[in-house]
Amino acid sequence: MPGNEDNAPRVNNEITSAQVLLVDENGVKVGITNTIEAIRMAQEQSLDLVEVAPMAQPPVCRIMDYGKYRYQLQKKEKDARKKQKVQALKEIKMRPKIDDHDFDFKTKAVKTFLESGHRVKVSVFFRGREMSFLDRGEEVLNRVIAECESVGKCESKPMMEGRYMRVLLTPQAAGSSQSPKQPAQPKGE
Description:
Elements: E1 19-23, E2 29-34, H1 35-44, E3 48-53, E4 60-64, H2 66-83, E5 89-94, H3 100-115, E6 119-125, H4 134-147, E7 152-154, E8 159-161, E9 164-171
Parallel strand pairs: 1-4, 5-6
Antiparallel strand pairs: 1-2, 3-4, 6-9, 7-9, 8-9
């Protein structure tokens, strides 16, 4: 079990130093001890001597249950991976002469993606003579940005990339999503 990995700490007889700074299983510093004596003390308690700071002079070693220690490290790594949120980049394509119903449908999809924590690239594709009417594509993208400002924010203004005009929307932080505030009504008038 010990020594399987390159970065794994040295355990028991793998420790090469003649003397070590010993810390017992309760975290109490014992002091500088002969390595053979430290290994014997660990074995008396049915535990392992683990080198925790090999670069120190003398190296720091701790008496602990190495198997349990490795298990707890693996468990922490697994929990950290579980809590990690994978953020994908979704893309929605539109046209400059998009119909209202299609616009609403695609905007609803953009909002859904933003609410679930994904970044969304909204693209408007221009064909042929449509390239001379870039302002229509920009209007479409500005409408999308305005519709989605409650759940996401725009990274930059719409930009041309070849025949595509694109904008990137990112979800708002969980704590900053605010509902639009109603204007205060005057009381008693």
